[in-house]
Amino acid sequence: MTDAYKRPSKTKAAALGDRNRQRWARHLRQKLSSLVSANDLMLARETVNADAVHRQREQPRHYPWFDRPQWASVRIRIDQMATVEMLQRRHLEATEKEISRAEVLAALMASGLETIINHEDFGGKRR
């Protein structure tokens, strides 16, 4: 049985620096912008942002500085979360540097993005 991912404490594993902390997110944005139109990308981003702001304003406490949320929450299945944590653990073992769940998801998405976009179930052409 494997152990759940545990965040390293009092080590240099978390000392990635700002640039490396978002490496996979940048890679995903670059790949996405090369595969879809800028219009589609901006529309999708603004839709998600507007939905997040709307949900936030429905909460009892609303603070104006939270008008542009940086994070969205999504429910995922147990096996999907286990995969993310397994990849976090493997990254820590391989690089001795911590990686966030968001960065693991960005790496997964970037690696499979072109395949999914070209799949007929996602609007791609039949082969």
How many separate domains make up the residues?
Answer: 1
Compressed to H and E, one letter per element, the order equals HHHHH
* Helical content class: 55-70%
Q: Mean pLDDT, rounded to whole units?
A: 80
Major sheet characteristics: none
Number of helices: 5
Intertermini distance: 41 Å
User: What is the molecular shape?
Assistant: globular
Unreliable runs: none
User: Given the helix and strand composition, which structural class is it?
Assistant: mainly alpha
Provide the β-strand percentage band.
under 5%
What is the number of beta strands? 0
Give me some keywords for this one.
mainly alpha, 57% helix, 0% strand, globular
Short structural summary:
The protein is mainly α and 127 residues long. Helix content is 57%, strand content 0%.
3D structure, described in words:
Residues 1-20 are annotated as: Disordered. The chain is mainly alpha-helical. The chain has one domain (21-122). It has helices at 18-21, 23-35, 38-57, 78-95, 101-118. 6% of the residues are buried.
Task: Outline the secondary-structure elements.
Layout: H1 18-21, H2 23-35, H3 38-57, H4 78-95, H5 101-118
Region (Disordered): 1-20
